[in-house]
Amino acid sequence: MTAFVTINLASSDWPSLIPLLLVLAISIVIGLLMVVVFRYTSDQKAIGRAKDRLKANLLAVRLFQDQLPVVMRAYARILRGTGSYLRLAFTPFLIAILPITCLIVQLDRYFGWMPLSPAQTFLLEARIEDAEAANQAELQLPPELSSTAPAVHIPKDKEVVWRVVGQREGKYDLHIATAGHTVTKQVVISTGVARISPVRWRGNFWERMFTSGEPALEENSPVEAIAVTYPPRVINFAWMEWNWIVLFFVVSLIAGFIFKSALGIQV
Question: Could you read off the pLDDT of 57-72 as tens digits, one per residue?
């Protein structure tokens, strides 16, 4: 770890290392769990036989490369053997893919976006389907937050945008009142890792599942969506900038291969 990251506990950089350390720890644990799940949901002996047949046919291609009929038969066996191996590996993969997807969606609430910092200006964007309702839209803020500019109306996008700033850490509810309806959006101001919901939707079930951590807006509300412009999180590791999901997959795969060899599991 010290080859990639220099940690100074007394420095102000320590809070920025917490997401990296959490992603690395979770990735290593998931790599181990994936290998264990594969072990108990796959036919290890059949996978071993399939891999041995593939190695034998690959060796035949190298040894008898000057005998075309032998090489062609070996390639045909390699294709059949690859299909057999993929079929044996498909069931464990299918069992693992659903919980892994659900885990990534939940972790993205914490690692996909950064909370706003105190005194950091952000935009609050409301998409309102009716032009008259958009003109009537009024932003209601708690005392800890303040608007720094008048609302900007973007008719072609059916959007109203406010620029807001908060001075203290905390979770705050912003209210937008229009056409007799009031909708709420949570804003998180923090210097640590926090659960973030960048957008709140009306309807759009699948969008809500993957991008929002808040309940749906009321169906009869003129507001279709409310979004806060949180900055996306970038994790620095191994002299590169990573999206956390890419880093998660790379580290979990490396950890999985290490645990596979250590535990003697056929993959």
Answer: 788 778 777 777 777 8
